[in-house]
Amino acid sequence: QVQLVESGGGLVQAGGSLRLSCAASGRRFSRYAMGWFRQAPGKEREFVAAISVSGGSTDYADSVKGRFTISRDNAKNTVYLQMNSLKPEDTAIYFCAASLGLNAVAVRTTDYEYEIWGQGTQVTASS
User: Fold this and answer.
1) Distant-in-sequence contacts of 36-39, Cβ < 8 A, 24+ apart
2) DSSP 13-64
3) What's residue 4's pLDDT?
4) Residue 102 pLDDT more than 80?
5) DSSP labels, 57-96
6) Is 46:39 a contact under the CB 8 Å cutoff?
7) What confidence tens digit (pLDDT) does each residue in 23-78 have?
8) β-pairing, 58-60 with 3-7?
9) Spatial separation of the C-alpha atoms in residues 85 and 7, rounded to whole Å
10) Each residue of 11-34: b (16+ CB within 10 Å) or e?
11) 20 to 30 Å CA-CA from 25: which of 78, 90, 114, 116?
12) How many Å apart are CA 16 and CA 107, to the nearest integer?
């Protein structure tokens, strides 16, 4: 089974950029669709971005479209989230998640569809 470890979080001024990485252990990473979610204090966890097994399909929450980009490198067992033009409302703990059993192009945007989760990384965008 794949295990996930996020990195790349930190403190940045509003308007700045960060790139999150999610490194997966195990040999079956290329068979998982991947997603990023976030949870701000006092709020429910919410979908941010998702990418298919092949990497050819992606989806984004409306709040991050045009600012965030999800990508994956199956040779490195890693999924990325490039975050540009960060806003204070992007402040949250960011989690990556993996979902097995999809076809090459499907993406999943709800957290209950994901079986494996990382421990999260804090992102803080200050105003």
Assistant:
1) 36/70, 36/79, 36/81, 36/94, 36/95, 36/96, 36/97, 37/94, 37/95, 37/96, 37/97, 37/111, 38/90, 38/92, 38/93, 38/94, 38/95, 38/123, 39/92, 39/93, 39/95, 39/120
2) ETT--EEEEEEEESS-GGGEEEEEEEE-TTS--EEEEEE-SSS--EEE-TTT
3) 97
4) no
5) -EEE-TTTTTTEEEEEETTTTEEEEEE-S--GGG-EEEEE
6) yes
7) 999 878 989 999 999 999 999 999 999 999 999 999 999 999 999 999 999 999 99
8) unpaired
9) 19
10) ebeeeeebebbbbbeeeebebbbb
11) 90
12) 28
Position 1 scores a pLDDT of 79
**Cα–Cα dist 46/96, whole Å:** 12
- pLDDT given at position 105: 86
User: Which residue has 């079986």 as its token pair?
Assistant: 115
**Which amino acid is it at 32?**
Y
